[in-house]
Amino acid sequence: MLITQLKEKEKILSLVSGKVFIINCQGCKEVHFPEKEAEEFQKELSAEGKVTGILTTDYICNPENMKLRLEKHRKEIDAADMVLIFSCGVGVQTVSEYLEDKKVCAACDTYALPGFQGVTPLEYDCDQCGECYLNITGGICPLTACSKSLVNGQCGGSKDGRCEVDSDMECGWERIYRRLAQVGRLDVLKCPVQIRNYNK
Ligand code: SF4
Ligand code: SF4
What we know:
Elements lengths: L1 E5 L2 H7 L4 E6 L5 E2 L2 H13 L3 E7 L5 H10 L1 H6 L2 E5 L2 H10 L4 E4 L1 E5 L29 H4 L26 H11 L18
Parallel strand pairs: 1-3, 2-4, 2-5, 5-6
Antiparallel strand pairs: 1-7
The protein binds iron/sulfur cluster (2 copies).
């Protein structure tokens, strides 16, 4: 089982630029979702006129269903400068894969709890690290997309874009760089490294 917890309010507000489209994932029994806190926070954002629309649904980690749902909200998404997601790390990565030209941010951190976990077969994953990095890595998880789970950039060993540990996979950090360039956010790589707290 996973538990999602809202990031600090100040941290979420520092991510918000312009108008936002919000997605809540509440439908998976394997993930605890902080429903009340998310709702209160979103009411405040709406009262400030910053929200173009809210989609509350289940299993946003199912890419096919998610595409259909997102297309129903296409106008609200296009009217927004960014998409803010309240879900576990897999849900954020699913939306980020589809809305590749949009700034997509995670409002929650994902923690592991012993027990059963979701079984949607996907090429990407969340390692439930407790301090989500997706906001500084363009929605690609550095813990699972990089063979060494590096959180501070490329190791320097990739060849022709392939990982030096596993040549069957693309270098995760080259993917992160390309995605950040695509959404005009390469500046986040100049920020101080977010040191990983292994206690979490
Ligand atoms: S950085 Fe990766 S492992 Fe950590 S919470 Fe985000 S998606 Fe999960
Ligand atoms: S080559 Fe890329 S994906 Fe592989 S370990 Fe180095 S940084 Fe990580």
